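S., here's the first fold you wanted:
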Amino acid sequence: MTVRVLIVEDNLINQTFLSTLLRKYGVPSIVVNNGLEAVNFLKTQSVDLILMDIQMPVMDGLTATRQIRTQLGLTVPVVAVTSNPEYEARPRCREAGMDDFLSKPIQKKQLEAILERFLPPKEEKPPVIDQAYLLEITGGDNDLLTDLLSFFKSELPANRQALFDAVEQGNRVEFDHHAHRFRSSLNSLAMVNLAADLKKMEKNPTLTDAEIGEQLKALFHEISAGLKMLDGLIKD
C-alpha cells in the first residue's frame, strides 16, 4: 500500500520543508494551497494523513476539516499545523474534527511521533536477489555467475528501450511480449521478486500507460541495485 500525506499549506517555505522532510522518511506527499483545494482533492482521491494549516486564504483549515468530516464523511486523520498558542488553538481544532497538533516551527521529533501514530507500518520490501535461488542456479560457481551477469548487462539497454517504447506507443501487445521475455532474464539472475512485479503489469487493464511507465522506472531502479549486489558477490 502506498502511504500518502496531504499537505494543506499556503506558505511555499513550509510546503517545501514538510514535503522534503517526509521524503527523507520515505513518505510520499501531495501539496495543495488551501482548504478548498484540499476538499476538492479528497472528493476523488484518498490519503492516509492530512497535515492541515489553520490560517489560509480562500478556505481556512478549520472550515476545511469540518467539510471533510461532514460533507465528505471521511475519517482520515487530520493534524492541525498551527503557530497559535495551545490554549487558543486546541479546543477549536478538536471541535472541527482534528485529531492532533503540530506546532510551528515544526520539530522533527514532533513529526516523527505523528507519523508513527497515524500512518500504517511500512511493508517490508522483498529482497532484490533471492540468494537461495541464485545458489541453486549457479551452484556457487562464480565464473557462471559472471557469464550470466555479463549477458544480462549486454541485453539490458535493448530490453529497457523496448519496454518503454511499447508503453509510450500505448502498444500493450508489444509490451506484454517484451515483458514476458525480460522476465526470463530477471529470473536467470534470481531477481524473482522483480520478475513477479513485471508480470503484474502484463495483461493488466486496470493500469494506465502512465502508471505502467512509473512502475517500470521503479523496476529498473531496483534492477540497478540488484546488479550492484551481484557485482559485489563476484568480487567477494
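And the second, which I think is the more interesting of the pair:
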Amino acid sequence: MLQVCPNGARTKADDDGIPVTSGELAVAVRNAVAAGARDAHLHPRDDAGAETLEPGPVTRAVTAVRAAAPGIPVGVTTAAWAEPDPHRRAALVRSWPVPPDHASVNWHEEGAELVAQALLERGVGIEAGIFSGTDAAERFLAWPQADRVLRVLAEVVDTDPESATATARDLLHRLRPATRPVLLHGEEGGAWPVLRLARELGLDTRIGLEDTLLLPDGSPAPGNADLVRAALEIGR
C-alpha cells in the first residue's frame, strides 16, 4: 500500500504546491489517488494556515478529501506541535464530529497513550508513529494495547541518504516484537532510499510533499501525484 502525505508541516513558503485549504487537499489527494495512492495522511489547517486539531478544520479536511476520493482511507495527524497539551489533544479527538479513518500518534511525545486511548474510544485507527533516534519503539511496545493499532508508522528522521537505510534497518529491528503491519518511510534526503528499502522488503510506505519536495533524480516535484507515480516505478 502506498500512502500519500500531501502537506505535513510545510507551508507555501516551502513550495507553492503545498495544499493548505481543505479544497486544495481534496484536489491533491484526488490526483494522487489517480496516480496510484491508496491512503491519505493529512495535516488540517485553520483559516490562518496553522496546523490544528480543532473539530471544524479537521471535519472540513476529512469531508472534502472523502468526497474527492471516495473509498480511500483518510487519516490526520495528532502531533504535539499542533496542540502541545496532551490532555487537550485527547479532548479534541473526542470532540471531532466527523472522525477520520485513522490518525497518527507520535509515541515519543508526552501523553501519546492518552491520545491513543481517545482514538480507540472513537473507533479511529491508530498509526503508531515511531521515530528513529528516540525511545518511541520501547515505549510503544510496552503499551498494553499495542496490538490494537492499525499499523506501526516507522518514521526514519535520518535525512542523510548515505545512512538513512541503515537507520531504517535498525528501527525495524527494534520493532520486531510488534504484531501490527509496518509502514516504513523517510524524509528529505532519506525519503527515496528508505522508500526503496520498503519496496524491497514488501512493506507499506508513503510519499508526498510532506516528506520530500524532490523526485528521485533530484529535480523539484511538480506535485504529490508526480511523487506517487515515481514511487510506484521503484521496484517494478
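Why I say that: The helical segments are 22-35, 55-68, 86-95, 112-122, 136-142, 164-174, 191-201, 224-233. The longest strand covers residues 125-131.

Talk tomorrow,
H.
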